[in-house]
Design goal:
This protein is an alpha+beta fold and 141 residues long. It has two domains: 1-48; 62-141, no CATH class. The chain has helices at 4-47, 50-59, 63-71, 80-92; strands spanning 95-96, 106-112, 115-121, 125-131, 137-140. The chain has a five-stranded antiparallel sheet, with helices on one face. It is globular.
Length: 141
Amino acid sequence: MINTFKMKRKITDFQNLADGISYFIREEGKYKIRERRFERFGDWMKDNDFDTTFYMLILKHDDVYRNKCYNNGYEPTPNNVLMFILDYVEMKCSPVVVNELECEFNNITWEFNKYYFQLIYGQGIITRIYNVDDLKLILQI
């Protein structure tokens, strides 16, 4: 006689294993897509002016954008393009120590294309972007 409890458990274990494997395959696919996007972005930066495009991106995160976020009931967050650049900086650049940008909370700072990108971890995450030349705060979101 077949023990149905053991059989059900084996089927469940197999389903969990299959789900786990498919999860890792999906995640690996996402990783490969992200790497291809990073490569394309690196190629794009060779031929285009990053500063002009980045400045236009910063201007999109103005008070109107912040008020729209607050009116919709959530904290302002970087839009998809800025989030992509933040991911690129986090993955491709090494953290730096900038004594002038000290913060009371845990933070990580990266330097990329004449800008400092600082992530500050507290009850949430605040992103600050500074100009390297004069340490002027360009954006805090």
